[in-house]
Amino acid sequence: MAWLWVILGVALLYFGGELLVRHAVALARRIGMSPLVVGLTVVAFGTSAPELAATLAAALGGNPQVAYGNVVGSNIANLSLVLGLAALVHPLRTKARFIRREMPFLLIVSLVLYFVIADGWIGRVEGVLLFAGLLAYLTYLLREKEEVPDVEAEFAAEYARTGPAAWISLLGIAAGVALLTVGASALVEGAATLARAWGVSDRVVGLTVVALGTSLPELASALVAARKGESELVLGNLVGSNIFNVFAILGITAMVRPIQPDGPGIVVDLSVMLGLVLLAWPFLYTGLRLGRREGAVLLLVYLVYVRYLFAA
């Protein structure tokens, strides 16, 4: 029965996220946002919506370990599993200036998260500070619009369409949020039941089952974009989603209800997350080719990490 709740939750989160992203993009284009800004903000935040829904549901339901595990596990999955599989589908190379600007930002965000969580408490003050970081990040993105023409063209080809009327987009966004809400509750309930059945901690299930389920929108969009050879879309979405996960999801959740992750494994989780940022840094920051060999290494890191979680 627990697996049915997990599968139902993942399905609702996936379709809710897709619905939210599609109509949010259409609404953003209708009010005049450029395709590049839409891709770096609306899409990145929209694909992180399942993480937000599941993290809030876990925190409000008294499962702080699941809430913590979902955010950290999603960031780990994005830079290992998702990026690795995308590179296996099609080697990635970027000319985008925004990647070189965002990679140092992602490193700083990861370091901030390391020190915020390392003491075992994320209170409302930390939540406000993280959310303030999100506002600063959005301001920065909205002001820095100049980009390489090829990159502008890639985003325009994907996000230049205005779509349906505004009222239809608003209904689509509302429907997406409703599906995310129900799906998050089902996923967290099923995951907590699985944790008890498997004899593992809520933290482990949050880092694996819940994080993987909420990362499906990033995985689906990355594989589709990689198959088309759209490296900038893959990298922009993943880097942006990881930044949103920390600033928006942890920030909003901690403001609603403080999170208290505990256990000796937390330092390992945060170290793996930070190590993946440092591993991806030379490829994404310098524009070097992230080929199938590098993708296989990233995928191997994820598999070894998951094996460690269930063996510990």
TrEMBL record:
Keywords, A to Z, come to: Membrane, Transmembrane, Transmembrane helix
Residues folding into a coiled coil are none
- Please give the chief subcellular localization of this protein: membrane
Q: How does it sit in the membrane?
A: Multi-pass membrane protein
Is Signal given among the entry's keywords? no
- Cellular-component GO terms for this entry: plasma membrane
Among InterPro entries, the record links this protein to: K/Na/Ca-exchanger, NaCa_Exmemb, NCX_ion-bd_dom_sf
What PANTHER family has UniProt attached to this entry? INNER MEMBRANE PROTEIN YRBG (PTHR10846:SF8), SODIUM/POTASSIUM/CALCIUM EXCHANGER (PTHR10846)
Which protein are we looking at? Na+/Ca+ antiporter, CaCA family
Q: What is the lineage of its organism?
A: Bacteria, Thermotogati, Deinococcota, Deinococci, Thermales
